[in-house]
Design brief:
Strand order of the largest sheet: 1-8-9-10-11-16
Helix content: 10-25%
Oligomer: single chain
Number of strands: 18
Shape: globular
Structural class: alpha+beta
Radius of gyration: 19 Å
């Protein structure tokens, strides 16, 4: 495994970074809209995490998925319509930190920031700090938009040569520090290997990505840091839950080289049952919870929910998947939103 430090390029108040060619107790959990005693007197940071489903621009560079490559179905007009819809959702949800998976490139990130700015730059209303990471062999990457300062961005990438099969292209694990006044938290953004090619056949690569995350979280735990992990894990939340006997200050685990790294997931109540009826992804008429937010350290979750309002979901709360043929919909994933009390 290699750890590559991402390069920060300043563009006004916007920062881009890339890997290309360079590199609480669970009893404090409350539903969305409620605030527990543990959150009082602390700084609250609102966060949204969303897989925005193959968000490509209208410029063909060769790495796009085939439906977006030199296609009459995908035009600049359709891209701008989708871009405006995304920015409307961002403005409506209005979190302090907005994490996205499946963004094509830094140009799309710049288009988002320009659209949000609307010709003027009001610091209090816009996300002043942005970063983007993408593996050189991948069509899509991850982006973070923040009203708080972002520093220390790193990419942790895989270079596995011990498996029988060659390592597929894998999104890097993005690590960055969010500075909120006198408080800091380490944010890890994940987009693990999809199940395309077979769930069992691709499981080994998600195992490796879990190990990379676990080892980096463990290091930050030892340094006494507050850590937030989020993203599309392509692995159900249930796969991380601790047994009932082991649930104390944490309820889930990441499996590392030296053993389990305990963290907390708001997907579950104290009895181990799901905290929300809806998952984040709807497949074969069943909810899946493959998008995750986890925390560890001196923090708690003051609220947590999936977003099931229009336009991201239909009347039944099912994700309104984006359809390139019509331009309708947003994403086949629902956004997760939470408030983190530091």
């Amino acid at each position: 495994m290699k750890n590559w430090i991402a390069v920060l390029l300043a563009a006004g108040m916007i920062f881009f970074c890339g890997c290309e060619n360079q590199f609480v107790k669970d009893s404090s959990f409350k539903r969305s809209g409620e605030t527990g005693e543990a959150a009082r007197g602390k700084r609250n940071i609102s966060l949204v995490c969303w897989n925005v489903q193959t968000f490509f621009d209208a410029v063909t560079t060769g790495s796009e998925y085939k439906d977006f490559k030199n296609s009459e179905r995908w035009t600049k007009e359709k891209y701008l319509q989708r871009l405006n819809k995304l920015c409307e959702v961002m403005t409506s949800l209005n979190p302090d930190v907005f994490v996205m998976e499946e963004i094509e490139n830094a140009d799309v990130v710049q288009d988002i920031t320009n659209t949000l700015a609307g010709g003027s730059w009001e610091r209090k209303k816009n996300w002043q700090y942005t970063c983007f990471t993408k593996d050189s062999g991948s069509a899509i990457g991850c982006a973070v938009f923040s009203r708080y300062e972002l520093t220390g961005v790193k990419c942790h990438t895989l270079d596995i040569r011990t498996q029988k099969e060659a390592q597929p292209s894998a999104r890097p694990l993005m690590q960055l520090t969010v500075i909120a006044g006198e408080q800091e938290l380490e944010l890890f953004v994940n987009h693990w290997k999809s199940k395309s090619g077979g769930e069992e056949e691709t499981e080994i690569w998600r195992d490796w990505q879990e190990l990379v995350l676990a080892e980096n979280v463990l290091q930050n735990q030892r340094n006494g840091k507050t850590v937030v992990m989020c993203g599309d894990f392509n692995r159900s939340a249930e796969d991380f839950i601790l047994s009932e006997a082991d649930r104390k200050h944490s309820n889930t685990v990441l499996r590392g080289a030296a053993g389990n790294v305990e963290v907390f997931s708001p997907w579950f109540r104290s009895d181990g049952k799901f905290a929300t009826e809806a998952g984040s992804y709807f497949y074969n008429e069943e909810w899946e919870r493959i998008d995750n937010i986890m925390i560890t350290g001196a923090a708690s979750i003051a609220s947590f929910s999936t977003v099931t309002d229009s336009p991201v979901a239909d009347e039944e709360g099912i994700p309104a998947a984006f359809k390139i043929y019509t331009g309708e919909g947003c994403s086949d994933h629902l956004p997760l939103k939470c408030v983190i009390a530091l």
